[in-house]
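FIELD: query
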Amino acid sequence: MNLAQLLTTSFVEHAYYAVTAVALAAGAMGFFVVLRRQAFAAHAIGHVGFAGAAGAVWLGLSPIVGLLVFCLGAGLLIGLGGASLGESDTVVGVTLTASLGLGVLFISLYSGYANATYSILFGQILGVSWGEVGLVATLSFAVLLAVSLTYRPLLFASVDAQSAAARGLSLRATSLMFLSLLAVTTVVAIQIVGVLLVFSLLVAPAAAAQVLTSRPLHALALSMGVALWSAWLGLFLGVWIGGPVSFWITALASSAYLVARLVDSTRTRQVRRVSA
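FIELD: result
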């Protein structure tokens, strides 16, 4: 089978639909993750999902059910516990360590073959069904719709929390909403790159975008574009060359950040040279 035939097979087409939806949602939410300096929270929620997946498998349920319940629970717990802008990361750290312990417990209690759980760690993009594509697309669309409807208050609270509070905006409610959306996005992204690498897809494209531009809408669009480019090209390289698709996607996203830093450094030197 040549490359053209391989790219038109049903499982590759399903994968492309799924990565498109995931990349758009992750790019949009990643912009706010970096802007709000809550990368650690994003990292923790992803690892909490492993405990949820393991618990669901132990109970004979779909790993997706456990992912949703535990990730949403972690997001609400972190928000209610006070792990927001400018506050301590203690709640995030405690939530992370407790969930990892639960994950180990659930795996030890499960006597069957936990392949479904371990696939959550590394992603299973080339194995998604049409039904899973529909679920991923629905959740991603819901996240994008919520971001578009709450963009202005969320941006205001992220950039200047004190002024937002003075204007009557509830920082606690904003934080809970954001972390809930982050939890849903994490569940979606885990299907593509897995728990261990979801952090890079959420953070690297957004970090690259914010290095290149300080205009919020431009940075948001660029973050989504970099995430989409990383996902599309990473899937293509995984099919063409071989190797885990999640590796290619995260390698490309991380490379985009390095390139952005180099471009910014070059641009800064040129400005200084002109000014001198």
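FIELD: remark
The domain at 3-196 is CATH 1.10.3470.10 (ABC transporter involved in vitamin B12 uptake, BtuC).
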